[in-house]
Amino acid sequence: MANEDYIIRPAEIEDLHQVMRINQRTLPENYPYSFFVEILKKFPKSFLVAERNGEVLGYMMNRIEKGLPGVFTSHLRANKGHVVSIAVLPEHRRKGIGKRLMIEGMKAMKEYGAEEFVLEVRITNEPALAMYKSLGFEVVREIRGYYHDGESAYLMSRKAENIQIS
Ligand SMILES: CC(C)(COP(=O)(O)OP(=O)(O)OC[C@H]1O[C@@H](n2cnc3c(N)ncnc32)[C@H](O)[C@@H]1OP(=O)(O)O)[C@@H](O)C(=O)NCCC(=O)NCCS
Taking Cα atoms as reference points, which of 161, 59, 68, 69 lies closest to residue 114? Predict the structure, then answer.
């Protein structure tokens, strides 16, 4: 999973302080340490970091949720891979790190049985929307007032079947 000077690898508990710092620096949605630990313990293969010489440049964390049928999964108890949070340090953006985290994260969620991937994104978050669309995500609907500051989210979704697990 190496690319030029950074690697994409599963996160380890020791990475979480750097992950939390990136989360706090780049997103309004922040979580307590225990939340990161819980996701890492439950879904270690799909909690990924981009790392260079010990520095975490970006992360992606996900969980598998069994729930109501999705857009592409009509049966009850569908396995959905939910992108909980992804961020790349501002000084390392537009180098393909976000996209590589997404692709490797989707492969790992598929290994956990995800049939469809879902995520929420602020309707004004143009970089993230562009990245998700470039990866085949489509807007399912708008969720009005989804965020604590009142901004709305787009619920986006993508089938898992055409992600290749190499
Ligand atoms: C969204 C984010 C993770 C993208 O990370 P990144 O490493 O810069 O993304 P990539 O370099 O892999 O870009 C992949 C594609 O996304 C699109 N994209 C990314 N940033 C963009 C921007 N600022 N404007 C327009 N398109 C953009 C492009 O299509 C890009 O491909 P290209 O560079 O070949 O044109 C990053 O902007 C970020 O951390 N934002 C703050 C946190 C955040 O909003 N997370 C998502 C919450 S839902």
Answer: 161
